[in-house]
Specification:
This protein has about 325 residues and is an alpha/beta fold. About 25% of the residues lie in helices and about 20% in strands. It has a 7-stranded parallel beta sheet with strand order 2-4-5-6-7-8-9. Helix 5 (about 125-135) crosses helix 6 (about 155-160) and helix 8 packs across helix 9 (about 255-260). It is globular.
Length: about 325
């Protein structure tokens, strides 16, 4: 949300094994939102900016998360077109509240090439199912910024558990979602995927202390980032740590955990899933036996290497 933030972020992500990412702009007054959309440029030496994730502003004030609810609004076609015209990278993903959009508006947004995702929503079970039926294929940070599941009012969570074909983001930092509901959600995916996300905010890599971001005062304690009220405000999670936790918590093979952090999220936002193919751009991460990044290539070029890793003749380091 501050000009100049994305370029250093794209460099820092290399050490986390990230070769491409969606910088997120959050709900804010139109002038600040448009300014942020015009400044989401990565460093050419860093991880690729694959597009933008717009987390709002068409969200529910009843589920604001860390954001001021007065920044949320009903669908505004003129503002949306201004956002499209201003964005320096394509808006590939947009988090929306089901109850603030009609099926016709979902069609309009989808026709502009953006993938919609339910989040920061107070939608009922029926409203969520109607949004899925209208073409919304995924949910943003599942379980968070939406009502909890109740057997008589299942809400968005119940709709997601009922619809195994929907992709579901998970923040596996051990704070946003407990182990049992994470496993339940994974077990109910019959056609949709679990998409691992960091939900990281700029203070995530900083030492413990007080910081200001997006107009909010945040406290970093080493394990979490919180508002003064104690509410979680994003995560300190890195994507490589999410992969390791997926193996430990979800009882999946390392290869499938890596799929949740690479091919699944790409497909989830309408991009070619990628994978290892002859002639493809070599966006690759070399991991050690503990699934910790040792070397990151973007476009066939080594962009980051852990201290002490030994290079082979091919230019790629040997794994542990």
């Amino acid at each position: 949300m501050r000009p100049g933030d994305v370029a250093p972020l794209s460099l820092n992500l290399l050490a986390q094994g990230v070769t491409g990412f969606l910088p997120t702009v959050v709900a804010a007054p139109p002038d600040r939102l448009l300014a942020a959309l015009s400044a989401t440029c990565g460093d050419p030496r860093g991880a690729r900016v694959l597009g933008i994730h717009a987390e709002g502003p068409f969200l529910s004030p009843d589920q604001p998360g860390m954001f001021p609810p007065d920044a949320f609004r009903d669908y505004d076609r003129a503002l949306w077109h201004d956002m499209l015209a201003t964005a320096v990278s394509p808006i590939r993903l947009m988090t929306v509240a089901a109850e603030r959009l009609t099926p016709a508006q979902i069609d309009e947004l989808s026709a502009d090439g953006v993938t919609l995702s339910l989040g920061h929503t107070n939608a009922t079970h029926d409203q969520a199912l109607a949004a899925f039926d209208a073409g919304v294929p995924r949910v943003t940070h599942a379980y968070n910024a939406m009502p909890g599941f109740h057997h008589r009012a299942p809400g968005v969570v119940g709709a997601l558990l009922d619809r195994g074909d929907i992709d579901a983001e998970l923040i596996l930092d051990g704070l946003h979602v407990a182990r049992a509901p994470a496993r339940i959600l994974a077990a109910t995916r019959t056609g949709g995927n679990i998409v691992l996300v960091s939900d990281g905010v700029p203070p995530a890599a900083r030492p413990p202390g007080d910081y200001t971001w997006a107009g909010c005062r945040l406290r970093v304690d080493g394990d979490s980032i919180r508002l003064a009220t104690g509410r979680l405000a994003g995560s300190t999670l890195t994507l490589d740590a999410a992969v390791r936790r997926a193996v430990a918590w979800l009882d999946v093979a390392p290869a499938f955990a890596l799929y949740m952090a690479s091919e699944a999220p790409r497909a989830s936002i309408g991009l070619d899933p990628g994978g290892l193919k002859t002639g493809a751009a070599a966006d690759l991460v070399l991991l050690d036996s503990r699934l910790r990044p040792r070397l990151t290539l973007v476009g066939g070029v080594i962009r980051w290497q852990r201290n002490g890793a030994q290079r082979c003749a091919s230019g790629v380091s040997a794994a542990d």
